[in-house]
Specification:
With 263 residues, the chain is mainly β. The chain is built from two helices and 21 strands.
């Protein structure tokens, strides 16, 4: 009998999951939630190692803002002029542990974190000005070109799937694999990722003139471990429907539920 994956956590929210941000250093993830009807937004903080929701009061967020990065518990929220044409118009740096705003600017754009500093840019008389906000001391400095060259951006290591659309030779190979494992005909496109021990495929089937999106997980030999319905009644395909971090699989189900499994 095939081995089932061990679920790490599952959290269901009343609003749609809009964006997921991982801390660059700590086992924390910030999930942006949006109520599309009433144009409201919120943030939930999860410790993904302990698999629990952290006590956290998100800063008051306007509809035209959202999280773009987090480092050592400092969450950066980018403010925008318009969601359709998201030109940045300022940012907020929020300490999730102290529950307080460290910096709020009405101009500028977040670039990256580096060595406990948030690096930002702003336009001044057609020139791009780089500045650093020290997340420990609060000191703000303008950065010259030589200093910028020495900066190393922090990165969160996440494995994203490859997408193959119908007509691509790899789509034919993966869809044949899906048919063999599930006896279902994959259409439109697939997303594919291999890990050291698993094969993961996000695929679509036709259902009542719309699409259903499934997530197939097998072991390295193609033995099915999970075949999960992610969403239904879809007008088209999505992108990056799952990802892997630190040997754990993450995906959103029915737009409102995030699940994680150990691989």
């Amino acid at each position: 009998m095939p081995t089932k994956l061990k679920q790490n956590f599952s959290f269901l929210f009343k609003w749609n999951i809009w964006k997921i941000i991982f801390d660059n250093h700590l086992p924390l993830m910030a999930i942006e939630l949006r109520d599309l009807e009433d144009k409201k937004t919120d943030i939930v903080l999860i410790d993904y190692q302990k698999a629990n929701i952290q006590a956290f009061s998100a800063p008051e967020m306007a509809w035209l803002s959202g999280p773009v990065g987090m480092s050592n518990g400092r969450l950066l929220l980018q403010k925008f002029k318009d969601l359709q044409f998201p030109d940045p118009k300022g940012f907020v740096i929020f300490d999730v542990f102290k529950q307080q705003t460290l910096v709020e600017e009405n101009d500028g754009s977040f670039a990256f974190f580096s060595d406990n500093k948030a690096i930002t840019t702003r336009i001044f008389f057609d020139q791009i000005i780089f500045e650093s906000y020290d997340l420990v001391t609060g000191i703000i400095e303008e950065l010259d070109q030589e200093t910028r060259k020495k900066l190393t951006p922090e990165e969160v290591k996440i494995s994203l799937p490859l997408q193959y659309n119908e007509g691509n030779v790899h789509f034919s190979t993966v869809s044949t694999f899906v048919k063999k494992c599930t006896n279902k005909e994959a259409i439109k496109g697939v997303e594919y990722l291999e890990t050291a021990t698993t094969i993961i495929v996000s695929y679509y089937i036709r259902a009542h003139e719309k699409l259903e999106n499934f997530l197939l997980i097998t072991d390295g030999e193609g033995v099915v471990m999970e075949d999960i319905l992610l969403d239904s009644d879809l007008p088209g395909m999505s992108k990056d429907t799952f990802f892997v971090k630190d040997n754990h699989l993450y995906f959103v189900k029915n737009k409102k539920e995030i699940q994680s499994y150990a691989l």
